Every structure is written in C-alpha cells, then in structure tokens.
Amino acid sequence: MTSDEIVQDLRTYLSEQILDGEDVGLEGTTPLIEWGILNSMEIVQIVAFIHDRFSVDVPPDAVTLDNFKDLDSLAELVQGHSETPS
Q1: Segment-wise mean pLDDT, segments of 10 residues, the chain, 86 residues
Q2: Which one of 39, 47, 70, 85 is most buried, counting C-beta atoms within 10 A?
Q3: Cβ-contact 83, 75 below 8 angstroms
C-alpha cells in the first residue's frame, strides 16, 4: 500500500470517527495534535484503527508526538512497522 493510500484511509477515519463527519480540509501535513484534532483518547483509537485496517501493531515506544504529528508521519509509522523482517 502506498503512502498516499494510507494517508487517504487515515484521513477518512479521522473525518468520520474523530471529527463526526466534518471535513476540516485535512492534508498530509495538517498538525493533528497542535490543532487539537488528536488527544490521548483519539491516539488510542487511531492505534486500534491502524491495527485493524493495516494489521500493524504500533509498539508503545512508537507512540510519540513526532509519529502522530500529522497524517504523513502516521503513514510513515504504518509503513515502517508493516514490513516483515527477512
């Protein structure tokens, strides 16, 4: 799955589940925490969504402000943890 596809899935999830269907013009670089879109409860929800949608277990040490700052960072997190070691 490409980064753009992951960003789109995350954008749809945030719009529908976190923002109650509101389209606030989320872009890949929209600051999610800074703008108050994500707080600790929503981070737990999005980690569960990432597990369900992408079959990726986000390790506790990866739950950082840098990884959750925007959709692009979340997509990188998903891609980085979805690769299986060879």
Answers
A1: 95 93 88 93 96 96 96 97 65
A2: 70
A3: no
